[in-house]
Structures are given as structure tokens and as C-alpha cells.
Amino acid sequence: MSRVFVTIIVLVSVFTVSATEKGKKGAYDAASTNYKVLYPLGSGQERVQCLARGSCNQKILTCPKECPERKPKMNKKEKACFIDCSSKCEVTCKWRKANCNGYGSLCYDPRFVGGDGVMFYFHGNKDGNFAIVSDKNLQINAHFIGTRPAGRTRDFTWVQAFSVMFDNHNLVIAAKKVSSWDDSVDSLVVRWNGEEVEVPTGGEAEWRIDLEEREVVVERTDERNNVRVTVSGIVQMDIQVRPIGKEEDRVHNYQLPKDDVFAHLETQFKFFNLSDLVEGVLGKTYRPGYVSPVKTGVPMPLMGGEDKYQTPSLFSPLCNVCRFQGKPGPGVAKY
């Protein structure tokens, strides 16, 4: 039976237990999350004791003064402390948000940077659903929104929602449709197996479910419209909801209607344990020896394949090349 809970920090010497300690394989095994958190120093610098196998085992790592916390509340202004208990055995300061120029990113009028580091565009079509990743134990579909001004031969498109399918579960992260943008309003929707869940803004600012084989965590990386999604042992996603601004609309001549700012998702993925035969618009770029077919050196290198990757719905694991062998999660959400 699953247990849903919100983490509460208790001021004792050790207040977080890793997934490995619970008898499960940790999210990264001998890497960043395989540790237990110790009580911080008087300066506020957080500390951990590494549990990963290898040379870093049992070592205590301390966050630097420049980024003393793993989850700073002022995410836009402060870098977070990233802890790596693998053979690197180090702490570094990084932003906890999607890097749209980094590996595994999906941003803008869908622009991808593949696992091979090659940038390409995949336009799809408005109201279409496409398999971004399809593997034996993971399927990630994206729902595209868009518009086609008069005289255009294709749609302008953006990703409005993701459906993450694994085991027999379904996690949906989506941007709400809004007529005007307000930075003080949260425009993010999270659904677990068809039911909407609330991600707290206080405390650890996370929603978490502890399954028999893995944990699923959605944590806020800013007060609104920014989250990190982790499905242990499978995928990590840094997601931001953003609108199309008036200046962006003017420069690109999108000709957006006045009652829709086309709120969409900018995302960076990090995958774990993909197979050598992984498929999907982004997934296939992680295959060993993959050579991108896109034409480089042009302003907009295009990746085709809409016919191969289109799915009947956001929640369907079926496409012409899809490989997912699990069951689609219960519940269907509409946006």
C-alpha cells in the first residue's frame, strides 16, 4: 500500500533517511542521494554522511558558505548545494532550474538538446501528443499546444504537459491555460494517477509518495511555477512554467490571441538506467553510438518523425516505435 506524506524536519542529529537505508535501491545508488543528512553547522552549512559504495563511503561532506543549503528558498537568487557521494566525493554550487542549453533539455518552440549534445527542433503539431521517451520501464509523452497564423505552413508549438508513465503509475505535470500572466500566481498542475495533488510551499516544500520499489518526489525549487520531479532510479526533471511575453510574441510574429499567453513548460531531463534500445524524440539520442540525422550548421535544424512518435493521447503508451512494457496509470486528466 502506498503512503503519501509531506516531510517534516525534526531537529535531531540525523533527520533524513536515504532510500537505500529503507531497503531499496537509492535514486542514484552510489551517487548524490545516497547519504544521510546530519545536523547543520552553526553557520547554517548543511552536512551529509555518504553511504555510497566506494571511496566516499562514510565520509562527511559539508556544503560551502557560497551555497550552504541543498534547497534554498530564494531559488532565483541563490545557488543550491549539490552533493555527489560517488567517486567524485564532492559538493558544488549549482542553480536548481532547467538549463535550456544543457543535455536533455526541451524548451521554447520545441527546441531539444539531445543526449549526444546536438541541438534540434521538433515541431509536432498543436493539440498533438508525442512520445519524448519510450523504454521498457518508462514512457514520457508530451502534449503540444500551438497556433498557426494566417499564411503559415506549420504550427508554432510549445509543450504544455508531460505524462510520465512507469510501472503501473502515471504522473502528470502541466501548465494551466491562463489569459494573462502573473508571477505571483502558481500556474502549475500536478496529478498522480489521475488525482490532483498539492505541492506545499512551506517546510520541505515537496509532495512525496513512497512506493514498494521506488519513491516519487515533486519538490518546489521556487515559490511558484518551478519544480524538480524525481522518480527514483528512472528520471529527474527540472521544470519551469513560463508564458510567451509580448516582446517575444512581437519578435517571432506568433500573433497570439489576446486571451491566451500560451503558458508552457521548459524542462531539463536526467535519465537513469535507460536501455540501449530506448526510443522517443529525445530518448533515442541517448542510444550508444547514436548519430544525429539533423543538418547541423543551420539556424533551425529539424528532426522529423511525427508519424513515428505520435500517440493517441497524452496517456497512451502506443506509437509506431514505442517500447514501454508497463501499464498506463489509472485516471485520465483533461486540460
From TrEMBL:
Cleaved signal peptide residues: 1-19
A Pfam family hit: Root_cap
Top-rank lineage group of the source organism: Eukaryota
InterPro entries with a match to the protein in the record: Root_cap (IPR009646)
Keywords noted in UniProt: Signal
Name under which the protein is recorded: Root cap
Organism: Arabidopsis thaliana x Arabidopsis arenosa
